[in-house]
Automatic annotation (TrEMBL):
A molecular function GO annotation: 2 iron, 2 sulfur cluster binding
Protein name: Apoptosis-inducing factor 3
Ranges where the Rieske domain occurs: 66-161
Gene Ontology terms: cellular component: mitochondrion
Taxonomic superkingdom: Eukaryota
Length: 601
């Protein structure tokens, strides 16, 4: 019996020099200006300088200390949540060094201790966001904020934690950003950076520019009436109000001089003169342009398509209105898309009946494969959702102008008080047809690895683009995922500042239905086989999507964090062979993930 004396670990919060709060700013100090070039002309922008503080805690009463663990309690590659009494931190040991950061993912609050630690970063188990364990900085998305970072000190093999109560409670950190210099001197019809679209790609682009010290004018414009909001929640949490799902509060945009023009539609872009022409005739000159207009939902083309109470879910008002109309009523959903299925799941407990009409024989067949699709379909049927497969809508019938019935080509007539259409979308790029910007045959904007179009100074991002995906040998693909839109926006911003940054992220998405989530990583388009591990009937499974001998994507339900583990393997440039999927699955269950540190295939 070997007795090991109790050891304490000390962790204290250290606010990076450039991250210190405004209260610690020098009122007059300015850093040396950074310089970037626009069309060969040098431009300056400033980061506000912060004084070096001897004590990172300007309020001693905000500090808490607590004993944590013995230094030998953690092996290399291990993480542990540690409780400080008024909040928790995530303690990490990698390569013999201790690190400590916030323990919750700032996106939706996932416990990062259940995530994946690999090569200096931790990946969220739920939605794949990645954070640097040394700085807490967000390195992959979704989400906007970074983690608070806590300094770790070890004294005589004893560990203590010293941390800010505020940081422990908020569990998030917004990177310091520059402000616009002399905004009042600008011409209202001229901006340095114009961003068309105010979704995730547009917002992340604007924030990244400010984080990198850009202090010239930034204008975002959107057809929406709201500031940027969490669009995936429109189908997952349909009764959410706009202010509840806002990505940033109004004060944020004012604080960092990011101008947002709402209910403003761009009708044309004059690339020669660098002018965006709005629908109302207003014109705005720009120096750099980001096009992040997303997509436009497809409408039904059948008889009666103009009947009242037929919806595409495009805005919070649409979602709210559908919930109100559907309560205790009959709902018909056309299209077993992600949106259609999520809406069906959300309304199943609220509506009198939910019917789903789909042209394919199984939901999600092209994306998740037939076996997974049937398992999901069975889950829906057990929750009172009725499917009408391999048919289409032929007519919408009305009574006093409002929807009464949905008639199918099969001859079936469905009672309907409200209809939600989720039959796909097309890129919102029609206004660019005469612009000279390269658009492919499907309407997508073609960009390179730096999110640049064929026109100098014009970038594009999000659902409306095709880009080279490193994971699939730089094949040009369209990946309409929330996470990917974030990364597109960041890459575009960095290259507006001539950083020469190429995109190399692994696509990651999720869907939520009846309190269960399917996670997915990779790009499975064109898969020729699906290998299932686990139990589909119990909805506890992992599906490996393969093309020839290579695993190109993975999906799982109730097997966290295996999708995040696969994402890390793919992000490292490694290949999982079809013959190795079983070994991968078993190594996940035993915890031996040598895949993450090995080299080659």
């Amino acid at each position: 019996f070997l007795f090991v004396p109790a050891v304490e670990v000390k962790i204290e919060v250290v606010i990076p020099e450039k991250e210190r709060s405004k209260e610690e700013m020098s009122p007059n100090g300015k850093a040396s200006p950074l310089i970037y070039k626009v069309n060969g002309t040098a431009r300056h922008y400033h980061l506000e300088e912060h004084p070096i503080a001897s004590n990172p805690y300007h309020n001693p009463k905000d500090v808490v200390e607590a004993s944590v663990c013995h230094v030998k309690d953690l092996e290399n590659g291990q993480m542990r949540e540690v409780d400080l009494g008024c909040g928790k931190a995530l303690l990490i040991k990698e390569s013999g060094e201790f690190h400590a950061v916030g323990h919750k993912c700032p996106h939706y609050g996932a416990p990062l201790v259940k995530g994946v630690l690999s090569k200096g970063r931790v990946r969220c188990p739920w939605h794949g966001a990645c954070f640097n364990i040394g700085t807490g900085d967000i390195e992959d998305f979704p989400g906007l904020d970074s983690l608070p970072r806590f300094q770790v000190k070890i004294e005589k093999d004893k560990v203590y934690i010293r941390a800010s109560k505020q940081a422990l409670q908020t569990q998030r950190r917004t990177k310091m950003m520059a402000k616009c210099i002399s905004l009042s001197n600008y011409n209202l019809s001229s901006t340095n950076v114009l961003i068309i679209g105010a979704g995730a790609a547009g917002l992340v682009c604007a924030e990244t520019l400010r984080q990198e010290g850009f202090s010239d004018r930034i204008v975002m414009c959107t057809m929406d009436r709201h500031l940027p909001y969490d669009r995936p929640k429109l189908s997952k949490s349909m009764d959410s109000h706009p202010e509840q799902i806002a990505l940033r509060p109004k004060e944020f945009f004012r604080s960092y001089d990011i101008e947002v023009l709402t209910e403003m539609q761009v009708a044309a872009v004059d690339i020669k003169n660098k002018i965006a022409v709005f629908k109302d005739g207003f014109k705005m000159e720009y120096n750099k342009l980001l096009i992040a207009t997303g997509n436009t939902p497809k409408a039904l083309s059948c008889k009666g398509k103009e009947v009242e109470n037929v919806f595409n879910i495009r805005t919070p008002e649409d979602a709210n209105r559908v919930v109100k109309l559907a309560t205790s009523k009959n709902v018909v959903i056309v299209g077993a898309s992600f949106l259609g299925m999520e809406v069906a799941a959300y309304l199943a407990e609220r509506a009198h009946s939910v019917s789903l009409v789909e042209l394919e024989e199984v939901p999600f067949k092209k994306f998740f494969g037939e076996r997974v699709g049937r398992a999901v379909m069975k889950m829906f049927e057990s929750n009172r959702v009725k499917f009408y497969m391999q048919t289409e809508v032929s007519e919408l019938r009305e009574q006093e102008g409002k929807l009464k019935e949905v008639v199918l080509k099969s001859g079936k007539v469905l009672r309907a008080d409200v209809c939600v259409v989720g039959v796909g979308a097309v890129p919102a790029t029609g206004f660019l047809k005469q612009s000279g910007i390269n658009i492919d045959s499907k309407g997508f904007i073609v960009v390179n690895k730096m999110m640049q179009t064929n026109i100098p100074g014009v970038f594009a991002a999000g659902d409306a683009v095709t880009f080279p995906l490193a994971l699939r040998n730089n094949k040009k693909v369209n990946v309409p995922h929330w996470q990917m839109a974030h990364m597109h926006g960041r890459i575009a911003a960095l290259n507006m500042l001539a950083h020469g940054m190429e995109i190399s992220t692994v696509p990651y998405l999720w869907t939520a239905m009846f309190g269960k989530s399917i996670r997915y990583a990779g790009h499975g388009e064109g898969f020729d086989d699906v290998v299932i591990q686990g139990d589909l009937d119990e909805l506890k499974f992992v599906a490996f999507y393969t093309k020839s001998d290579e695993v190109v994507a993975v999906a799982s339900m109730n097997y966290d964090p295996i999708v995040s583990k696969v994402a890390e393997v793919l992000a490292a440039g490694r290949t999982i062979r079809k013959r190795d999927h079983c070994c991968f699955f078993l190594s996940f269950r035993t915890g031996d993930m040598s895949w993450l540190t090995g080299k080659g295939s």
